[in-house]
Every structure is written in structure tokens, then in C-alpha cells.
Amino acid sequence: MTTALKLAEFVRETDYDDLSADVRDALKRRLLDAVGIAVPAEVAGPPQAVRRTVTALEDDGPCTLWGRDQRASPVGAAMHNTALVRYLDYMDSFLAPGETPHPSDNVAAVVAAAEFADRSGTDLLAGLAIAYEIQAELAWNAPVRERGFDHVTHTVVSAAAGASKVLELDLEETRSAIAIAATGHNALRVTRTGEINEWKGLASANAARNAVYAAMLAKHGVAGPRNVFEGQKGWQDVISGPFEVELTPGERVHDVMTKRYVAETYAQSAVEGVVELAEREDLDPAKVAGIKLETFGGAKLIIGGGEGNRYEVANRAQADHSLPYMLAVALIDRDLSLAQYDPDRIRRNDVQQLLRIVDVSEDPALTERFENGEMPAVIDVTMDDGTTYRVEKDAFRGHPTDPIGWDGLAEKFETVTDEFIDAERRDDIQALIRSIEDHKVTDLTALLA
């Protein structure tokens, strides 16, 4: 059986009734997290540019643009709403040895397709379970980072699968949707190397848009290459190398982490550690002589200088992918939230000076521990008088080994949305998501308009 057919059969055969109670609960928490982090992104420049682009092309449509008094096609809504979920870099992550995608990149695409098709909350959960499972399996078994492709190359496949489910495509239509997505929309890793710019926060939105469009093309009769993965010059030949997937109804959602801090995934343990150290020892940032972080290979590669200079930090996109910046500002402010990415905060002399004495190195033993499921970090802060303070972390609050439950997610949701929506609407959104199986998707999107 080809991989495309295997994925398509999984999409067709997986329904709400196949999901365990724990999987359903976890998916609802993923949905709440994605919706919450989208709200403060509404005022950011790049998502605003996406809104202007979408509405310039479409002045109306069947789907809600979250946070706006405007509507668009499911394709435009997937682009816009995914940009909101992804832009602030506060989204969830799946931790695989060679790849770390963000499964919440699928959420807005599946919601848009479900809103368009007027589906129920149970249909939505089934679509999300499929998307999360396929995203995780591709990340684990078919990493593409080392071959020069971005992780949203997986997202376009998983989101197309989730969208196909809620659009009720048949088997051949679903296979075509997956094939069109996997053939035509493979993204380059250059997005996250060198001098990073704002496309980093929008690449997954583009993937989500392409995923929904692929599903809509298949729905209306367009066929994709039947052997897209194993065929000559196909996905395995060019993009990933050989791989196999083992799919279960949504169980991979339990391996997804929740970000505690507004920071790139691999920084979470280190940031939590430096905040704990600064508070425990009451560190004076003006008297710090050096900060040394020993970390695992992926963190050194992506945000520690392996894929470009991480000491020249001038904008938000560069800041949230710079371990020197994140550790420096977290030590000074004893926090790493939205305020630490204000342009004036990024440019301030205290953090610009401190980040330049942050040293990041890979420890092979920590890399091995990461590949075995931890997210380790060892941080030494040396003061002007020669005193050195150390903190060691195995993981962080929000890691799959220490998950954040409903109470923690409700706190995060309320914190990030407090300035943007009133308490009554916050309560209504949380209550509806917790009982989403009793509602239609349009009930949710009405609250998000």
C-alpha cells in the first residue's frame, strides 16, 4: 500500500467515536491554547498585513476571520487565522529527535474547513486528531530539516488530511488532496536560517492556506499524483528519504508540549532555569560577567548560532530565535512574555549588552538525553566577583512529562487575552471549547469574530 493511500484510509476510517476520552480532552486543550494565543496577535504588523492581503482579494465569504468584523473563503480564513495562531511563537510543539513542528498550525485550517462545511464539534475533533497524528508521525519518521526543508512541509500534508475529513471527501478525493499538498507545497529551511525575518511567523499560515486549497481542489475533481511519496522523483526521493508511519486515532496528541514562555520551543527549559536562578539568587544583571548554557544539538543549531548569527537581534523574529537574547532578557526581567518582544525592549542597552556575553554550546550527553525524551539544559551564571551559580533542568512546565492541565491553560488563556476581550467572552469561549462536542463549529467561530 502506498503512503498516500495509507494516510487517506486513516482519514476516512477515523471518527470521533474512535477517540479515547483522554484524546478528546487533550484535543480540546490544544484548541483552547491555539485560540488564546491567536488573540494578542491580532494587533501585530505581519498578521495585519495578511488581513489586508486576504480582504483585498476577498471582500466576503463563508468563513470567519478571527478577531475581525470580516469574512473570507475557507482558504483565506485558513491563511489569516493560522497567522494569528503562529505569529507570536507561543504555540504548541511536538518533540521528535530530528524535527520539532507545531501541530497547532493545523487548527485554523481544520476549523475553517469545518466552518465552511457547517460541521459539528465532534467532526472538528476528529479532524484535529487526524491532523495532529499525521503531523507527529511525519516529524518522527520523516524529518526534513537536515535535507533543507522547513517543518511546514509536514504541515501542508497533515492540514490537508484534517481538512479532507471535515469536508467529507471520499477515499480517492482524500488521496488526491494529500497528493496535491505534498507535491506542490514543499517549503525551504532558509525561512529559519541566517538573518530571520517575519516570514518565519507566517510560513505555516501559507502551508495551511495551501492545504485547504488542495482539499477544495480535490473536492471538485482535481486528481493528484497517486504515488506522491514512493514514486520516481517523489516525496521520499527528493524531500525525506524512505519512511513508514504507524497511525493511531489521535494518541500522538499526548506527546505535544505547551509553551510556558513566549520563546522558541528548544529554549523553554533554559528560560525556565534562568528565571528560577535569577529569582533564587536575587541576581543583579549589572553584575553578571557571563552566562554559559550547555544544551542539546537541536537548540544549538536552530537558536544558538548553528544556522546563523544569533547575537544580532533587532526585531521580534530574530529575538524569539536567539538563545542569547532570550536568556539575557529573562535574567533581567525574570520573565519572557509578550512584553519582552516590544521593539523598545529588544533594542534597550541592558539586554543588548548582556546577550553578547551569553555562550551557548552543545553537550553530546544532553543531545542523547533530548533524543530520549528530555529537554535538558545546564546554565552557569558567573558574577563579577567570580561567584558562579548553576541550575540544571531535565524539562520544563508544559513538557509532556510535566503537562499543563485545564487550570494552567485557563490561566494562560486569560493572561494573553485580558487586554483584548472581556471576561464574559473569555468565559464563553472556554466553556464552549470544553463542551465542543455539543456545539457546531459556527458556534465557536461566532465567538472568535
UniProtKB/TrEMBL annotation:
Residue ranges the record marks as coiled coil: none
Family matches, as InterPro entries: MmgE/PrpD_sf, MmgE/PrpD_sf_1, MmgE/PrpD_sf_2, MmgE_PrpD, MmgE_PrpD_C, MmgE_PrpD_N
MmgE/PrpD N-terminal domain ranges (all copies): 6-247
Pfam family, one: MmgE_PrpD_C
Molecular-function annotations in GO: lyase activity
Signal peptide: none
Ranges for domain MmgE/PrpD C-terminal: 261-437
Family, per entry: Belongs to the PrpD family.
Cited PANTHER family: 2-METHYLCITRATE DEHYDRATASE, 2-METHYLCITRATE DEHYDRATASE-RELATED
Name recorded for this polypeptide: 2-methylcitrate dehydratase
